[in-house]
Amino acid sequence: MKGIRVHQTGDSSVLRQETDLAIPAIGDRDVLVKVEYAGVNFIDIYQRAGVYPMPLPFTAGREGSGTVVGVGPHVRPTTDFNIGDRVAVFTQGTMAEYVSAEASGVAKLPPSVSTQSGAAITLQGLTAWTMVRDAHRVEAGQIILVQAAAGGTGGLLVQMCKHLGATVIGTVSTQQKAQVARKHGCDHVILYKDVNVEREVDHLTDGEGCHAVLSGVGAATFEADLACTRRKGTLVSYGNSSGVVSSFGILALSKRNVKLVRPTLANYITEREEFEERWQELSGLVSSGAVKIELGGMYTLDTLGRAQDDLASQLTTGKLLVKID
Predict the structure, then answer these.
(1) Which superkingdom does the taxonomy of this entry point to (predicted)?
(2) Cis omega (within 30 of 0) for bond into 77
(3) Which residue, 145, 196, 220, 262, has most beta carbons within 10 Å?
(4) Class at the top of the CATH hierarchy for domain 139-262
């Protein structure tokens, strides 16, 4: 089969398309999926660059969607996957024609959710939903700051926060992205290159700050994220797109009794019951139209390097996908 392998860490040039890979074996509790779409995410870049160390070599990709073509002997009695089911997959190795995943990381797609949308929401969608349900429980009347509000995860966060009744302030870099953020539902949009974010948030919140700041940017905005969080508020730092946050003085949190959370999706959905609960909620939001998927670009396996570079450039909006032919 075809797939993208990483044999050494580095920039996007280390991504290698191989055509003679073996189709993965099916474990007792595994589901074998013929992949149709795979999502492009910052975690792929972190793994490739060595920020998140991985055993070498490895197959790229952390989310995808496709059709079940094989099931392990202990799968059907508990999860009821069958040959031909359309599914979303949350596992390593989705940038390939086939992937074998533990059934605990596989979910059926309802008829109203396309295979393309399934790939777009598996990792990013579950990440966003657990940020507003588990990392900080967003409630009606709260004011939430979403950094990078026009991006793939940011756009989902905005829609989810609005669905839950919050007022949303979003940051973006350009007027074009500001239009995207407003389309997602942002009540206020800040162009961070033109104005001081802390000052604008202070003005918009009458000096109180935000109940929660949801930021996947990392180092570049961390101090501002902290400053924009109100007394007894929560700073959710869920990513490192600008670099990893270095050590900081923990006493800075005591100025306003701020709670700092650095979560990962995997720790919120470790158990099958956790995964299934959040997946059912998320797929319901997509099915009802409460959350809409914006496609930012479609790539192929041999252009995955460009896709990752486009994502890292922060010039894209919406979700980037790879179509597996």
Answers:
(1) Eukaryota
(2) no
(3) 145
(4) alpha beta
